[in-house]
Amino acid sequence: MIERSRIWAKDTIVALREGRNESGAIGGGPQTASPQKDDGKTADSAESKQATPSDTKDASEAKGGQVAVPSKAQVSISTASEQTPPPKKKGKAKRVFTLILLAGLGFGGYEAYHWWTEGRFIASTDDAYVTADITVILSKVSGYVASVAVGDNQRVKAGDVLLKIDDGDYKLAVQSAKDSIDSARATVNRIATQITAAKASVQQAEASVAAATAKKDEASANFDRQKKLADNKFASQATLDTADAALKGAQADLENAQAAVTLAKANIDVLNGQQKEAEQAVVAAKTALEKAERDLAFTVIRAPVDGIVGNRAAQVGSLLQPGSRIAAIVPLADTHIDANFKETQLEGIQPGAEVEISVDAYPDQPIRGTVESIAPATGSVFSLLPAENATGNFTKVVQRVPVKIKVPEEEITSGHLRAGMSVVVAVDTRTGGQKADVTVSALH
């Protein structure tokens, strides 16, 4: 009887264990019970699991020698009732993840739609700067600065006086040039008088030639007559010799008169040459006067264009030499944007295209502009040392092409744009007129 009770006790313990394992599998695993309410149940369960053969025997004897073994279903229900309900945090996290996923999909869809309708037509770059054709003012003459009429960052108009150089020496140079002109003109007048006198001498010499010619003709006729008489023995030899001597003397006088005419004419030629030299001296003196007056005018330095004075280097008392830097003027009217676009972005960029400009200094104040022109070559071509790819290893690098962007007049006059400022430009390639007139030759 005792042996049978032991067998029933072992079977009961095995059944209890199998029932607990099955209840754990059905309930989704062990659950953590409340520490206050489940303490007693846990203790009872432990005591039931640790039942000894003697306890089983007492129970069997109390029921007439039979042990009541609980079924598997009863054990499973009892175990499930002891487990707590699953936490709700897992469902909440799933809902948050779903919301985040939906928000991400919505944002991605919006960005994709915006790119398809707008973004793919926009060519933008941050390699862009405000540019102006800055005029550097240099001294053309040397001298000490007498006065400075403008200050730094001051607006000026074309023709306004910027600076004056001491002009004492230049005024003296002007007066000296005027004196040289007067002297050269006096020389011209004197030579003209000499030419007139030389011409009178020529006329006088020519008159002497005529008189000598007449005497020579008379002496020649007398010699011929005396020779005929001498040949007929009607005149003596002495008379013939006298006539011959008279002829020779008249011939000599004629030759002297002719030489005097030649000399007088030659003197006129010399005087004419001197007169031309004197006239050239007058021209040179006038040129010297013009240069002196020009240098005198350069002592007053004026603004060549409208703009703002900057980088002023000259002070009162400074010694300037030709080419010395005085100041710089930034012209407002010529302010524009130079944007360096990648060569792969140029396909849709055309002159006249609309541009949105964002200045780094004023990010909340976008400016509207238009493409004015596209450079005929990349920036590297105009660099001081162009890249040489004919030898050595070659690495292809995307080149950039400068694009000139025109800024509205009201933005220029407002003074917000300063040369050298960084900007970000975005060109709408759907706008613009004809493409730039740039011919690209294909290599065959």
What does this entry look like structurally?
With 444 residues, this protein is an alpha+beta fold. It folds into five domains: 2-82, no CATH class; 89-117; 136-165 and 300-328, OB fold (Dihydrolipoamide Acetyltransferase, E2P) (Beta Barrel), CATH 2.40.50.100; 168-283, Orthogonal Bundle (Helix Hairpins); 334-428, Beta Barrel (Elongation Factor Tu (Ef-tu), domain 3), CATH 2.40.30.170. It is 49% helix and 18% strand. The chain has a six-stranded antiparallel β-barrel with strand order 1-10-13-12-11-14. The longest helix has 64 residues, at 168-231. The chain crosses the membrane at residues 96-116.
Give the topology.
Elements: H1 2-26, H2 39-49, H3 53-62, H4 72-82, H5 89-117, E1 122-131, E2 135-138, E3 143-148, E4 155-156, E5 161-165, H6 168-231, H7 237-298, E6 300-302, E7 307-310, E8 319-320, E9 325-330, E10 336-342, E11 354-359, E12 362-374, E13 400-406, H8 409-413, E14 422-428
Antiparallel strand pairs: 1-10, 1-14, 2-9, 3-5, 3-8, 4-7, 5-6, 7-9, 10-13, 11-12, 11-14, 12-13
Helix pairs in contact: 1-3, 1-4, 6-7
